[in-house]
Amino acid sequence: MFILKKLMSNSSTKKIFQEFIDEVWNKNSTESIDKYIAADCVVHLLGSNKDGVGINWVKNNIITSHQKYPSLTISVEDIVVEGNKISSMLQLASTIGDKKRTCRELILYRI
Fold first, then answer.
1. CA distances (Å), origin 58, targets 63, 97, 104
2. Could you tell me which of 64, 72, 68 has the C-alpha nearest to residue 25?
3. Which residue numbers in the chain have pLDDT < 50?
4. Which DSSP string corresponds to the chain?
5. pLDDT number for residue 2
6. First CA to last CA across the chain, in angstroms?
7. By CB count within 10 A, which of 24, 59, 70, 104 is most buried?
8. Beta-carbon contacts of residue 58 (< 8 Å; ≥ 6 apart)
9. Domain ranges in the chain?
10. What is the Cα–Cα distance from 72 to 51, expressed in whole angstroms?
């Protein structure tokens, strides 16, 4: 997935990535996604032979995730920026029934 529309310093890139997680994912604000995701982004999914393509695919993925897990929150545990790549360890949390569930996800974005 292409995040950010141009390369910036490592600290600026980390800050913008954190803002993307907070604003788009944690506040479920798909209206602001255009600030962060390129219109022609491609999302490669582990275990799938079909890629997600385009900003509308990303928006639908966020909406569907929040419909399925209304209390979903994402915490950024670590961010590494190297050249045109951002790697991040995320912790996802949601209440399912009466139990709080968490999992970790390692992601790689290419700018």
1. 9, 26, 20
2. 72
3. 1-2
4. --BSSS---HHHHHHHHHHHIIIIIITT-GGGGGGTB-TT-EE--TT-SS-EESHHHHHHHHHHHHHH-TT-EEEEEEEEEETTEEEEEEEEEEEETTEEEEEEEEEEEE-
5. 45
6. 8
7. 24
8. 1, 33, 37, 41, 43, 52
9. 10-110
10. 23
Residue 24, number of CB atoms within 10 A of its CB: 21
Q: Is 76 exposed, middle or buried (0-12, 13-18, 19+ CB in 10 A)?
A: middle
Q: What is the pLDDT of residues 20-30, one digit of tens each?
A: 999 999 999 99
Whether the model pTM is above 0.85: no
Domain 10-110: CATH architecture, name and number where available: Roll (3.10)
Q: Which pLDDT belongs to residue 48? A: 78
Q: How far is CA 63 from CA 41, 71, 99, in A?
A: 17, 12, 22
What are 9's two structure tokens? 């310093």
